[in-house]
Amino acid sequence: MKARAIIADEPAVLPPQTVWLLLGGFLGAVLLNAHHTALWCLPLALGAVAWRARSLRVTPRLPARYLRTGVAGLLTLAVLVGFHTLNGIEAGSSLLVAMATLKLTETVHRRDWLIVLGAALFLLLAACLDGQALWLLPLYAAELWILCSALYGLGAGADAPPARALLRRSALSLAVALPFALLLFLFVPRLPGSFWALPQPNQAFTGLGDEMSPGSISQLTQSGDPALRVRFDGALPPAAERYWRGPVLHDFDGYTWRRHRADLGRAPPLQYQGPAYSYEITLEPNQHNILIALELPQGLPDTLPNAYPTFDYQLIAPAPVSRITSYRLQSYPQHRTDTPLSAAVRRLDLQLPSGRNPRSVELAHSLRSAADGDGPYVDAVLDYLRRGGFTYTLEPPLLNLDSVDDLLFRTHEGFCGHYASAFVMLMRAGGVPARVVTGYLGGIWNRYGEYLYITQSDAHAWAEVWLDGQGWVRVDPTAVVAPGRLTEELDDLLPAAAGGRRLLDSPWIVDAVQAWQGLNAWWQDEFVGFDFAKQLGLLGRFGVRNHELQALALLLAAGAGIWLALIAWGLRPRAQRSADDGLSRSWRALERKLRRVAAPRAAYECPTAYAERVGRARPELSATLAALARRYARLRYGPSVSRAQLEQFRRAVRLLRTPPRHPAR
Amino acid sequence: MPPVTLQARRIYILPTASGVSAAALLFLMLLAGMNYANSLALMLCFMLCGVTLVSMHECHGMLSGLKLLRAEVDNTFAGRLGELQLYFDNAQTRVRAGLLLRSPGCAPSRFRLPPGGTQMVRVTFQAGARGRQRIERLELSSSAPLGLFRAWTWLHLPLEAIVYPAPGGARPLPARGGDALRGAWRSRVSGEEEWAWLRPLQDGDPPRSVAWKSYARGAPLLVAHYDAPAGVRRVLDFARLQGLPLEQRLSQLTQWVLDCERLGETYSLQLPQQSLQPGHGIAQQRACLEALGLYGQ
Q1: Residues paired with A298 in a beta bridge
Q2: What is the pLDDT of residue A7?
């Protein structure tokens, strides 16, 4: 037991390559966290690493104990003041950097270095928790490699091999570990929830909001951030049907449209018609809890059992979508309702602020009196928009508080939001229940990932009107102002916005971007998004149900066992071949001669020991044999050997006589 | 003793203190990864689990299949440290590192075996009382490559050392006797024959006459002419040490044997029921000391 204690607390006289790997690994871990730790973390770590690197071989003189304790206290306070907590990734990793840096200044024993190494590994974990983007993966892998090499260096102690050998060794070890890790990754049970409450990331997301003012959608379309990805089981809906439904807006104050929070009962039941589309949506995090769906979804998303539908065909998640979420749905672009509209919804979708947009109300009344019924009135308004000299632009002039009047009678320029707003307002003024629907339109097909890629620049707003006997009918007023919007890319319609993007239009760049996006999507879906639900799905494919955990454990154990057996096979001892040359031949000739005299040389006997043994058996030969053995050793291991010396050794061996033992002795 | 190959099932392995800490760290990582439902963090944790597992296998492999070719023990004096020599052979293609060989109560010997290497390892043991001493088991261990696991095995060797009496006593050497000086012209110290003069080897010279020692030192093949041996002789007699207890008598005789050897003198040993012929040199010393060590057993 004493011997073990000695080894564990042995002062670490580490060779420089090990110290470099340790310092490099630690610094790498700090750098990977630099973007979210406190500002002073990186300079602090850099300083400590430089200080430690100054005296690689010798143990540096340590700062006094009270000094170290004091600094530790101050740094903890600094983290507390900076983040108001010690919990969470940012504060936690800042604290970890601070404490590991302090430990670095007092590394004497192997154990101290192990603590620094453990801290570096935990920092790597913090970096992983913070960002799982594909482009970070090589950085993380390199960092893990360095830290593993440092671990191997630390394990070898004073006689560690050169850095190159350590790197090779750990690379091999990681390569062997990878399949095992993948197995664990697939089969170690995940949790549907979490052990302790996670602090919400205080990030601002771009995306559709709870309200829409003139200009808010066009602002959104200038962001190229991803919004969602959609994978279809079968055929894609035609381009004109790719309306991705988001927040539905009801409350209008003459300028801004807002969501209606109150629950107005169930939506009118739909009779689905035409083709159905099954698809899986991967939704980027955003600021509300609306699940985007193709118009109009049937049923609820499979992976979000607590989601519920609203009276205006929105799907609501129980909590805000704060991380990437996947769900499957089925939608029917064509549908109808025979049920009459409830009074509450009719009232809601007919209300207009009194005294606002008076000229538009007047226009609505005149168009309404000319039209025969709701349907013709819709056509009349659309016709008005088509012929009124309106243009579609991303940068419309500012509108005053009576925004619809201003658009219809002064500026005549607007984006989808403007026209949707004006159209719905005219509808309501004409007595047709109507509402604004925001969402996305279109998407780019990624042929590498085989999915539809929808970014914030696809944001769109359209209208929904109630026609008795048909139900809620989608009307897109933008389609009459700019008929290409449904089939063409937004950029092509808007020469003003295209400027910088033209550069990136060369086909191979587009192709490369698509390939990279496809790879990212795969990474996101299959690796990052591999959660409890997907694991159940995978296990289901193996025939394992949720409760069949015993079978799962067995599977896990069997896999690990097979892998261990493979490792054992790889590590089995292998024999070596022996070298051969003239000197060995002479020596073997000597051994052959001596076979008559004594037992042959055993595997453990070096030539000298062998000669001694034979000499003991036959004292008259002992001097000769000892001399030959020493000479052999000189020739074998001495500085240099000439051909003449080898020849003389051969002659000396030939000279040796081994007479049979005298009968008298 | 035939060569012994260390079998896998006789090798024990457990995590070290560092290994337990590492396991705790991995468990924390697993909890964090699961809590955040973060695939990359879980993967990191699992990769480290894999590396740990590989290191466990490597640690076991440091000992598994290692060949102990031969073990020898040097006789020693009572109460002193003796020495064992063990010859290990590494037939595999990887280094066996961080090996520690230890006999109970003594400091361990560290060594490593390069691929295909054979090495003699010396390890000390504590000698007990005079007589035969069985060497108890030796512990061979390694915590390479990461120090997270420690594998060990027990070597049970069929080894027995003869422990000589501890040299001691202040009585002077007995006087020389017997057929002492034969008029040799050279004083003899080493106890081995030495040549008087040399000439180059010619065909037909008997191999016995070659000056092999000079050849070993690097000289060409020469023919030596020898003198006859000479010496003086003392009789170390148990019976003449009356008045001392047995163990002290043996200690005194042991001391005398060592003194005679140091002086290069010829001596004989007389014990009750045993007497050793006059002689000198390593063999004579060994014979005398063994007789003393085993006296009465």
Answers
A1: A330
A2: 43
Q: In which band, very low, low, confident or very high, does the pLDDT at B52 lie, cut at 50, 70 and 90?
A: very high
CA A562-A564-A569 angle, to 5 degrees, is 95
The residue in chain A having the minimum alpha-carbon distance to the alpha carbon of residue B213 is A627
Whether this model's pTM surpasses 0.80: no
**SS in 3 state form for A27-46?**
HHHHHHCCCCCCCCHHHHHH
Contacts of B20 in chain A (CB under 8 A): none
Asked if the bond preceding A385 is cis, omega within 30° of 0, the reply is no
Question: In this complex, do B39 and A527 lie within 8 Å of one another by their Cβ atoms?
Answer: yes
Query: Of A132, A174, A567, which is closest to B38 when you measure between CB atoms?
Result: A132
Q: Which residues have C-beta within 8 Å of that of residue A588, sequence separation ≥ 6? A: none
DSSP B104: T
Neighbours of A622 (CB within 10 A): 18
Q: What is the distance between the alpha carbons of residues A110 and A7, in angstroms, rounded to a whole number?
A: 9
Strand boundaries in A341-420, DSSP class E: 391-392, 413-414
Residue A72 to chain B, least CA–CA distance (Å): 22
CB contact under 8 A, A194 and B87: no
DSSP three-state, residue B18: helix
Is A460 tagged catalytic?
yes
Question: Rounded to a whole number, what is the distance in Å from the CA of A190 to chain B's nearest CA?
Answer: 6
The interface pTM score, or ipTM, of the predicted complex is 0.73
- Interface-testing mutation among B16, B46, B89, with chain A (most A C-beta atoms within 10 A): B46
* Phi, psi (rounded to 5 degrees) for B204: 95, -10
Is residue A47 left, alpha or beta, with left meaning phi > 0 and alpha meaning psi from -120 to 50? Answer: alpha
- For residues A393 and A399, what is the distance between their CA atoms, to the nearest angstrom? 14
CB of A99 closer than 8 Å to CB of A119: yes
Euclidean distance between CA atoms B56 and B145, whole angstroms? 9
A627 and B213: CB-CB below 8 Å?
yes
Non-local CB neighbours of B74 within 8 Å, separated by 6+ positions:
B82, B83, B84, B85, B161
Q: Using DSSP, state whether A280 is helix, strand or coil.
A: strand
**Run of H or E residues at B292:** helix B282-293
**Calpha distance B36→A318 (Å, rounded):** 18
- In order of A392, A407, A477, A497, B238, the CA distances from A493 in angstroms are 8, 20, 16, 9, 122
Residue A145 tokens read as: 């490699």
Q: In which band, very low, low, confident or very high, does the pLDDT at A182 lie, cut at 50, 70 and 90?
A: very high
Mean pLDDT to the nearest integer, A294-320: 84
d(CA A533, CA A536): 5
Strands B138-142 and B131-134 turn out to be: unpaired
Query: For A9-13, A242-246, B164-168, B268-272, which range has the lowest pLDDT when averaged over its residues?
Result: A9-13
- How do residues A435-489 score in pLDDT, each as one tens digit? 999 999 888 888 887 888 888 888 888 999 998 888 889 998 888 887 776 555 5
Residues of A in contact with B43 (CB under 8 A): 181, 185, 527
Residue A621, C-beta contacts closer than 8 angstroms, at least 6 positions apart: A597, A614, A615, A656, A658
Report the alpha-carbon distance of residue B47 to residue A178 in Å, rounded.
6
Q: What is the DSSP string of A400-444?
A: -SSHHHHIIIII-EE-HHHHHHHHHHHHHHTT--EEEEEEEE--E
Q: Which of A398, A455, A465 is nearest to A425 (CA)?
A: A465
For residue A133, give every residue at least 6 positions away whose Cβ sits within 8 Å of its Cβ, in sequence order, or none: A520
pLDDT in the model for residue A635: 85
Our answer to whether residue A416 is catalytic in this structure is: yes
Task: Determine the Cα–Cα distance for residues A224 and A513; give it in Å rounded to an integer.
Answer: 13
Residue recorded with tokens 């099932």 = B9
Where is B58: in which H helix or E strand? helix B39-63
